[in-house]
Amino acid sequence: MSRDRENETDPAPATDPAAPHDEAARDADTVRHATRAGTNRRSPFGGGPMPVEKSQDFGRSIRRLVGLLRPDGFVVGIVILMAVAGVTLSVIAPRVIGHATDIIANGWMGHALGDLPLPDGATKADAVAALRAMGQNTRADMIAGMDVTPGVGVDFGALGRVLLWVVGLYAMSSLIMWLQGFLLAGIVMRTMSTLRADVEDKLNRLPLSYFDRQQRGEVLSRVTNDIDNISQSMQQTMSQLLVSILTVIGTVIMMFTVSGWLTLIALLSIPVMFLLTAQIAKRSQKQFITQWRATGELNSQVEEFYTGHSLVTVFGQRHEAARRFGETNDELYESSFRAQFISGIIMPAMMFIGNLTYVLVAVVGGLRVVSGVMTIGGGAACFPDCSPTREWARPMQTSSAAT
């Protein structure tokens, strides 16, 4: 009876003894073509072709992931509100620091003006007129834009109160962002748990013919590696992208309240960052796709060569199996190296553009302070406001791997 069942399930006719070697050669050629041209590949023990997966509709995939977040919609709303609050506090803090800088600068300059030959009770206008009479027009222009009183030093009481406000703002911002990250981690983990359960239900509904056509290692890679990659990308990208967008919006508004020219200089760097990141991400995305495809193929080979070790030994395919494993392992190494290296260029490039923007803002802001158009504290407040544009590099780098 068992012999009859074997004949019914495997009615293949007898073949020539050299056929296993010919099939192995054909399999090796198929793997090489799949590696070079991205075509289909076959299981080392037969079966149908396995297509190389590539995201054809990234927008639809994002919508499906957003749909998985609907059960936690209320918590997602709280996370967004907390991100808005945390970013708002962190953006306001540099402006308050600028006010503290103005208190120090005004006190220092007022104390220095006390050395001028001015009558008792002289005002700022008297000091400016005296400086112009002495030919110090640049210094007179700068003092004209400051709130100074000749002979009066730094108001340490007001400075202490302002610094306490700064400490409170940063402390509240850090606490809110920590809570936001805690809630977001819970949302992502629950979503991934639901996704794994859906995948398990889907696998249980699939017919046996599907598993006959697919390598088992490929299926395992989808359930483990791919879902872990989605989890990591969601947790990093959702938080960083949301915070970065809010930070850029908040800093632009804050900088406009200080100086429109400095804001325009900072905004000019954002299109450059987008274009540069898009070009780098376009090249790294191909390598990430190859990396995950090679990971699935390597898992398939390890799992099937291990479980089919007796067949590999009987047909004398141990050296062929080792060779194919080495080729796939080398492909995984090369693609992983290129993917990480190319995507790693994004951060240094963004830092370079951010530093150039910082220098331009510092030079233009210094000139405006000297001319009396802007206070020293206002210029100092713009320097921290320029740096958050660099935060765009992190979500862009993550998204290049996620897509």
Describe the structure.
By secondary structure, the chain is mostly helical. It contains 15 helices and no strands. Helix 2 (19-37) packs parallel to helix 12 (318-344), helix 4 (73-113) packs parallel to helix 9 and helix 10 packs antiparallel against helix 12. The longest helix is centred in the middle third of the chain and has 50 residues, at 156-205.
Question: Topology, pairings included?
Answer:
Layout: H1 2-9, H2 19-37, H3 58-68, H4 73-113, H5 124-133, H6 137-144, H7 156-205, H8 208-213, H9 216-258, H10 260-307, H11 309-314, H12 318-344, H13 346-370, H14 376-386, H15 393-402
Rg for CA atoms: 32 Å
What would the principal axes of the Cα set say about the shape?
elongated
Helicity, as a percent range = over 70%
Mean pLDDT: 75
Structural class: mainly alpha
Percentage of residues in DSSP E strands: under 5%
Q: Using DSSP, what is the number of strands?
A: 0
What is the H-and-E element order?
HHHHHHHHHHHHHHH
